[in-house]
Amino acid sequence: MKKFLITIIVISFGIISCKKEDTVVPIRDVAEQSIEDNQNIEDFLATHYYNYTDFSTIDSSPELIFDTIAGTNASKTPLKDQVQKKVIRVKKSDSTFVNHTLYYLIAREGEGIHPASVDSTYLTYEGRLIDGTIFDLSKTPVWFDLTQVVRGFREGMPTLKGGTFEVAKDNSVTFKNYGQGAIFIPSGLAYFNKSSGAIPSYSPLIFKINLYLVNQTDHDGDGILSADEFDKDGDGIADDTDGDGIYDYLDKD
């Protein structure tokens, strides 16, 4: 898996930590940063569009492309009129919550099943900053365990569905009718005050996603889907109801 998307869940802000080489800067007020991130994302959505006309043909699976609304593109419908929103609570160290807005675009929903936010997904993706800098991508499909990615990515994935596939005589695989879209993530649902590689601290992130397959997971093999054990209180942190130091979704007890 790619180094920037994979992370470890921590309790301090209900967000995500990075790797040891990451740089940590002074922590800003979570609520104030949420407002700033929201404005930056909305500015991007107001000034950019995606190639929605390419998705009008059901049998095609075009690449999702963003471009600025200017010149010959001045009449294009902006992303702000096509995205949807989810409000997600982020738990602070003082146990209070700050609401964060996750924006998502469904270019094509797909015809399979929606993943839960803790399932395994087979996908390709591109991660970029608001300024267009690409910090990570995979053009070859990879499996992602959604319990191991930044919260915004995890919370955004259930908006899409997987697709279908056909295996040819030469064992090549063709995917069809899969979900395609994008997630626009405030820093409080990503790396917040940490930086890594090309990702500066306090950076909103944009992920373009093609979701091919979904595997519903039961991480501990106890017969209960991980989706029903991971985060029942909605604070974004894996539950440990018996206090034994093992998260419920990993705990056969």
Question: How would you concisely characterize the structure shown here?
Answer:
This protein is mainly beta. The protein is built from 2 helices and 14 strands. Residues 6-21 have low confidence and may be disordered.
Describe the structure.
- The chain starts with 7 loop residues before the first strand and ends in a 38-residue tail after the last strand.
- The radius of gyration is 18 Å and the shape is globular.
- It is built from 2 helices and 14 strands, in the order E-E-E-H-E-E-E-E-E-E-H-E-E-E-E-E.
- Strand 6 and strand 7 form a beta hairpin.
- The chain folds into 2 domains: 210 residues, Chitinase A, domain 3; 30 residues, no CATH class.
- The relative contact order is 0.21.
- About 6% of the residues have low confidence.
- The protein has a 6-stranded antiparallel beta sheet with strand order 6-7-12-14-8-9. It has a two-stranded antiparallel sheet with strand order 1-2. A two-stranded antiparallel sheet has the order 3-13.
- With 253 residues, it is mainly beta.
Give the topology.
Blueprint: E1 8-9, E2 16-17, E3 23-24, H1 30-47, E4 48-50, E5 66-68, E6 84-91, E7 97-108, E8 120-129, E9 134-145, H2 151-156, E10 164-167, E11 173-176, E12 179-185, E13 194-195, E14 205-215
Antiparallel strand pairs: 1-2, 3-13, 4-5, 6-7, 7-12, 8-9, 8-14, 10-11, 12-14
